[in-house]
Amino acid sequence: MGDSDELFVLDGPSSSDDDSASASASQSRFVVVFRQGRMGNDVSIETYRFDTDNYPHLIASDSDAFGLRRLLHSRRAYAPPCNAIEFQRQHPPPQDPNFLRSDVHRQIVHDIGGDAARLSLASAIRRRQTVASRAAPTLRTNLASRMVPNTSSVLSHEASRIYIGRFSQKGEVFASCNQDGVINLYRVEGRTLKHDRKIEGRSIGWSIIDFAFSPDERYAVYSSWSDCLHMVNIPRVETPTGHLHDVHVALDMSPDFGDNFCAFSLQFSSDNTQIMAGCNRGSIYIYDRLRAARTLGFFGHDKDVNSTCFADDSSMLLFSGSDDCTVKVWDRRALSEEDPVPVAKFAGHFGGITSVASKGDGRHLISNSKDHSIKLWDIRKPTSPGVVGRATRFQRDPRDPYVNVEGDTSVVTYCGHSTRHTLVQCHFSPLETTGQRYIYTGSCLGSCVIYDALTGKVVSELCGHSSVVRDVSWHPRHPDMLATSSWDGRVRIWERSGKAQSTDAEDDEELCSDDSL
């Protein structure tokens, strides 16, 4: 999981700053990197100077960053956005004509009802009442996609940080996991969450790091700093004597290195039989429940693998994101553990990857990064091999967040949230109810930021926490229900109150132009 790096960029000193500064110094650019430990405290600072050769020269390193941090904030320094909507007023997302003609744009527009997206709410309702039944599902999705949550209530308030809070795939169970190693399970009954039971985690080192439900909602698995994953049952098992029994078993991952092991990311395969884990030391493992053993393990990145996911229900294509700032695609049918070669690589972030999420179509994914941006990728458009090795976080001035580094082949970039201290999660909104029109993420500023996937604009910023929102989860069947889980110890459930959201008419006309349908 690497340290959380915070970047500041300063221009070289002008004559007003230092009359004796040389011409070469005035053309220099300085990058200051704060390296932060797992508790979020500053542990070291490095200062780099970039001259005309654009090569980073380390000029200072110090363990006490607080004084220089105050100095940077008082000068022309870049800082992560403090408000997503205000940030986009100052940095409006560009409209790329190529994106308007892309497959993913056409697919989302189709899934939310095509030209119905530019209708008013009343007109959309009238059309649904008159159209043929085959068109009703997309119109229903269009109406549901306007019900973005906006009001919250506190589900739980705990004494320790909440690392995980997510709904199961069917939406019938919700789980939250805290730093004390406690898992709380809730039953979702209609629109009400009722506490079911508490599970005490085992072999917890630091915290429960990740948690995943099996698609059939019978089991869940969690990880920590331990050589084993642990699997628990969701519905309790009834014994022949009528007693309820809890399953809690260790799954030995047999790591290929001797020091501490941790799985930062977990996901079940669609058939419930395999568990994929993205782990430290750049490793990726797959555990087979039927064989009760690890069946695949390889080193795919230069640094910790913070996030992994399956591309689609076939479970053959794997996506991974790492602290080495790259996203990679792996095909299990052509993968060698001794010499693993990805089928595609993507470079464009200048900070480590905190989360990757698949659209589920086997072609598109998003990545969240410590550079405070989310990128949408098409796996058919990889970064060329010669560029991947040269891509670094220093190539881009983060004060202009939409300017791509060399070789960046991402389809679109979303900026406005802030990602620090931990592995902040991002997702597509549910396909069934919203047509995946939105991309949403947690933020270190105590909010959940929701982007319109078609325009890059911030649709809503759900502010209600006093610390990092690490995990966010949209209910798969209720379009107006979303959960946010924070380091302030609270889990909030967001719902919709008031009238449905309506989008700007000019934007909708652009979204659903004839060229994009």
Q: Describe the biggest sheet?
A: 4 strands, antiparallel
**Distance between the first and last residues' Cα:** 41 Å
Q: Mean pLDDT, rounded to whole units?
A: 80
Approximate strand percentage? 35-45%
Strand order of the largest sheet: 1-2-3-4
Instruction: Name the helicity range.
Output: 10-25%
Number of E-type strands = 34
Say what oligomer this is.
Answer: single chain
Total helix count?
10
Q: Using the alpha-carbon principal axes, give the shape.
A: globular
Cα gyration radius (Å): 23 Å
Q: List low-confidence stretches.
A: 10-27, 38-43, 63-78, 499-517
Structural class per helix/strand content?
Answer: mainly beta
Description:
By secondary structure, the protein is mainly β. Helices cover 13% and strands 38% of the residues. The strands form nine sheets. It has a four-stranded antiparallel sheet with strand order 1-2-3-4, with no helix packed on it. Strand 29 and strand 30 form a beta hairpin. Helix 6 runs antiparallel to helix 7. It is globular, with a radius of gyration of 23 Å. The protein starts with a strand and ends in a 6-residue tail after the last helix. The C terminus is likely disordered.
Write the SSE topology.
Blueprint: E1 4-11, H1 23-26, E2 29-36, E3 42-50, E4 56-62, H2 66-73, H3 84-90, H4 97-100, H5 103-111, H6 121-130, H7 136-144, E5 151-157, E6 162-167, E7 173-178, E8 182-189, E9 192-200, E10 210-213, E11 219-223, E12 228-233, E13 237-238, E14 244-245, E15 248-252, E16 263-268, E17 274-279, E18 283-288, E19 293-299, E20 305-310, E21 317-322, E22 326-331, E23 344-347, E24 353-358, E25 364-369, E26 373-378, H8 385-388, E27 412-415, E28 426-428, H9 431-434, E29 438-442, E30 447-452, E31 458-463, E32 469-474, E33 481-486, E34 490-495, H10 505-511
Antiparallel strand pairs: 1-2, 2-3, 3-4, 5-34, 6-7, 7-8, 8-9, 10-11, 11-12, 12-15, 13-14, 16-17, 17-18, 18-19, 20-21, 21-22, 22-23, 24-25, 25-26, 26-27, 28-29, 29-30, 30-31, 32-33, 33-34
